[in-house]
Amino acid sequence: MGKAWNYLFISISMMLVLTFLGFETGFTQIFNLIGFEYTPSTGEIGNVTTSASNVYGVLFGNGGDLAGILLALAVAGGAVLVGLFTKASTENLILLPFITGTLVLFVQTFVQLMIYAVGNFPTWATAAILVVLLPFTFGFIVALAEMFRGTD
Fold first, then answer.
1. What whole-number percentage of the chain has pLDDT above 90?
2. Residue 51 has pLDDT above 70, yes or no
3. Is the CB of residue 99 less than 8 Å from the CB of residue 141?
4. What does pLDDT average to over the chain?
5. How confident is residue 64, by pLDDT bands cut at 50, 70 and 90?
6. Distance CA 57, CA 63 (A)
7. DSSP category for residue 15
8. For residue 38, what are the β-bridge partners?
9. Which helix (H) or strand (E) holds 36?
10. Beta bridge partners of 45
């Protein structure tokens, strides 16, 4: 399971660096989910509070939204039930959306970076970026497949 986590942390680090450099990576939406205000156009870091996050608003709403808490419990219970009827462990099923979401976010970042590179860099620099990031992306996909097959 170590390979998938290595790819996960390396890709998140790369996306954070690119976000703070001003590239559109999709991390702004994740920052809003956890309550971290960041404006990519100006590079300003705003208020950091969990009570201002989108997740907090869904779960607790205005002083405690029972529907949000019940939704979270239903999702957790559904994941446990799915784990009972499949060969994958419950932990893998709970982690699946987070890890694959990170992969999708990394691929979006990769596409945005390539669009920027094609428009602003010479061909050899674009090819160098492609040579570095394409094998990394395929390695990430293979590591995820191995992790969920149990052969990691």
1. 1
2. no
3. no
4. 76
5. low
6. 9
7. H
8. 45
9. strand 36-39
10. 38
| Six-digit token string for 13 | 């680090």
Residue that wins the pLDDT comparison between 5 and 50: 5
How many domains in the chain? 1
CA distances (Å), origin 107, targets 15, 104, 122, 140, 150: 10, 5, 22, 11, 24
Q: Which residue range forms the structural domain that includes residue 77?
A: 2-149
Cβ pair 43, 22 in contact under 8 A: yes
Q: Parallel, antiparallel, or unpaired for β 44-48 and 36-39?
A: antiparallel
List residues bridging with 39 in a β-sheet.
44
**136 burial via Cβ count (<10 Å: 0-12, 13-18, 19+):** middle
Reply yes or no on whether the pLDDT at 85 is more than 60.
Answer: yes
Give, in order, the Cα–Cα distances in Å from 118 to each of 77, 108, 126.
Answer: 46, 15, 6
> Tokens standing for 92?
């893998």
* Higher per-residue pLDDT: 21 or 1: 21
